Amino acid sequence: MKFSVPLSGATLIRRYKRFLADVQLPDGRSTTLHCPNTGSMLGCATPGSRVWYSSSDNQARKYPGTWELVEVAGGHLAGINTGLANKLVAEALLAEVLMPLRGYASVQREVTYGDENSRIDFLLTGNTARPDEKCYVEVKNVTMGLGHGEGAFPDAVTTRGIKHLRELLTMRERGHRAVLLFCVQHSGIDRVRPAREIDPAYAAMLQRSRDAGVELLAWRARLSPLEIVLDTQLPVVFPGN
Predict the structure, then answer these.
(1) Residue spans of the chain under pLDDT 50
(2) Structural domains of the chain ordered from first start
(3) Which of 57, 110, 150, 161 is the most buried (most CB within 10 A)?
(4) Are 149 and 107 in contact (CB under 8 A)?
């Protein structure tokens, strides 16, 4: 995904009220950006960090700038715009970059499914080798790097994430293919694990889902102020198992 124009740089002053971030521009002025991330952003919102933002010419927007990237510990880049995760995956699916998910003729987005009135991020159908197969793909954005190449999800307790796992597990039990795809927007992450220390219930449900046949995939994005592209498959690990 190429940005329409290269991102602009600034220095983070503070992130607050979940959706706002004050930054200092190179000329010394300060401005407020929209923060498109409702999570805790652990490790990604340290005051003084270098950040990059996009700008909109939509006059109806109160805050025309949107925070997109941040430089985190170790000089790595993280993409904090969770709204881009599905766009990145959609591009990768259509380009058949994600090898385990190749071969489907139809890619539908935001399809209602399941017993809990959920919406699956992607429903893949039309596999020539398995024409009756339905493949349900749920996407989660990963930005929490723990150092030494380790990344974890979630960065806050997520009852919604557990609901999504229940729905995937049900689809698998009904004979469909079910996939949880971690979209890793952090250049320093080489593997992904459940953040048991933050949400033990989610970690337990993730392991149960994996053991029942839900596929866990992780792909890392290549990040820059010019573009973000998914290009590297990573392992999903369960330390201690």
Answers:
(1) none
(2) 8-79 (2.40.50.580), 84-234 (3.40.1350.60)
(3) 161
(4) no
